[in-house]
Amino acid sequence: MHGSDHGLSRRAFVRSAVAIGGASALAACLQREETEDVPQASLSPDELPERQHAWNDFLATDDHGNVEPPEHHLLLGLEYVGDGPADAEGERERIEAALRTLERAYERGNDGLAFTLGYGPRYVDRFETDLPETVDLPDPEALAPIEDPRLDEYDALVHLASDYGHVTLSAEEALTGELEELNGIAVEDSFDGIFDVADRRTGFIGRGLPAKNQSGVGGIPDSEPVPEDAPLFMGFKSGFRKTQASEDRVTIPDGPFAGGTTIHLSKIQLHLHQWYEQDSRDQRVAKMFSPTHAEEGLVDGAGHNLGDSSGIADIPGSAAEDARNPGTVGHAQKAARAREDGEPIILRRDFDSTDDGRAAVHFLSLQRSIADFVKTRRAMTGRDLTEGSVGSRTNNGILQYISVRNRANYLVPPRGRRALPEPNPT
Ligand code: HEM
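That's the Deferrochelatase/peroxidase EfeB sequence above. Prediction below.
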């Protein structure tokens, strides 16, 4: 095989290896991917930004300045099994050494590795003290009347992302104590005996990957309808420069965790039979963006023509007016109602998944406080918009095609406090 065909089948192969995990999947990946190009870090850990989530300056961008997220993603839900954590001095040093190993082994970015480590409410509950008022980290909860998600109770979450599947797998192996050397760097320490991996979720994002991975996947018609140019299963590009919050906007400004952020993570199953088999192209555009986008033909293909913005802030009328006539409201149109000072308040870093053979989205977003996520999600749910033919789910954006299976919230501390932090350090 030649050119992009070869490239795509390699990427699909790597996607399944990442999903399987372990030493043999890693070996297979190393064989399949061009490994000689992965650079060691050019910056020392001390030279990296204090924000764990400062990825954008290190990630690739397209011609319009939109960030191009890494293609492969791995989420590890961790359970604390150490002796502390309230009295965890030695463990803290070990965690920090393990993380610095990743930072030395790979450049931060698509060609290397981008990662964060966050802590859940369950971790905080292990201490006598509580988080300061400057951190908003409630227990996760169901956020819409139509959902009944499992509420994750992991102590911590590692998010690993790279254009190379073998990099995410190698980083996982290093963190779990299975490797002595990582990309030519000696592995200084691991999470072994401190954190166990209790949950493993994987995924991918990028033009062509969903099409290549749709075959035989639950939630997608057998006709394999996902277009080749789509970076996500639902067929459209997401995450334009001007429809994302900036990293500054999602950073905690004050207190001991200043420079940190929060993660909301949900697992959302997709049901795309009606989407692709009964809805017309115009209906899909109207439900994803807005009826105006459909009427005026603003979206070509997956929407790569839109440049650096979906244009959702520039369309006339309002979601409430569209709910009355024509009786459909768009997902982006609804979510944009949560903007503050004209800008979105969450930074989406979500991606698709075929974990367990089912099409899903691991919806991961960063925000200064979980309240900002809840506000945005309520705007997206749009209970106030059920007029005309807009029901609690029908013609109400994409609600009919998704079901939320899991929810979780995490605090992502600044790098200086990322290793087993006390909830209220002085
Ligand atoms: C199946 C899951 C989802 C898919 C496929 C999806 C897809 C999209 C697409 C294609 C857009 C328009 C392009 C863009 O501006 O990025 C968009 C916008 C947006 N979505 Fe989603 N989305 C999903 C779930 C969610 C969830 C759970 C939230 C959280 C509340 C959310 C929040 C937003 C926001 C804030 C915007 C931008 C609105 C603005 O311009 O201000 N999305 N999404």
